[in-house]
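Handover notes (outgoing to incoming on-call)

Open items:
1. Threonine dehydratase: sequence verified, structure written out, both below. Nothing else pending on this one.
2. Nothing else urgent.
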Amino acid sequence: MYKQELINTHTRIKPYIHNTPVLTSRLINKVAGANLYFKCENFQRMGAFKMRGATNAIMQLSESEKHHGVVTHSSGNFAQALALAAKELGVKSYIVMPNNAPEVKKKAVKDYGASIIECEPTLEAREKASKEIQETKGATFIHPSNDIAVILGQGTATKELLEQQPNLDYIFAPVGGGGLVAGTILAATHFGKDCKIIGGEPFEVDDAYRSLQSGKIESNNSTHTLADGLKTQLGEHNFPIIREGIERIIRVTEAEIIHAMKMMWERLKIVCEPSSAVAFAALLREKDPFKSKNIGIIVSGGNVDLTNLPF
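Threonine dehydratase structure tokens:
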């Protein structure tokens, strides 16, 4: 259903993104008992896979919509992604950020030329501020994960991975807002050979795991996780894709996230953020079903505060 759209999306955004490297480690393979291929979106422009979806979403707008700019609410990687993509494409961007967002993230967004609107750190406040920008500036709202143009953009990471490693049995991806894992499912369906998708999610924010059980979108009461990029919940566009296409979600503890992150730093020699270690942590938690399999792991990003590492 989405094969041609994924091909068109990839062609469209290629001039603005990196085809990121795929890394392997014999020692990690030995520990995992499987053949692992890490798709390193931490080397993507602005440091995360979200550059893909943000670029595609803006490029799909009409000239009139581009003229009036784009707006989103995000405290993290999508804020930077939309700001940089908009700058590259000559479009004005407005980013609503909670007033307690780290200064380093605010600075990055400003450096990419976006206008920051600060608000109280609640979803209600973020949505209200976004709505005001839409009404006063005529800007188009782009959701960080619940937008089909964004989902298709995120799926191009897996398309690239499968072009390099076509015989993957499984791909592990972290689950937060659902845009990455939904895109991963679509790409694996159309470009993989019976390739199944496993989601990784922290126990502390396991709304997607519970959503699959209940059949409706659940939210989180607690957000006490190092994986700050995974605190958001699924949306009505990505949830049906995930519900139909995911094999299962494996939940992990905070200690397991730290252990996986540390191993990636030590053995792959890469900077990855806690959210992107969750997929690898999920595999390490339940190794037996995946023995001797060929497994892709999406390393979602590398935007980490080096003054506040968990190890």
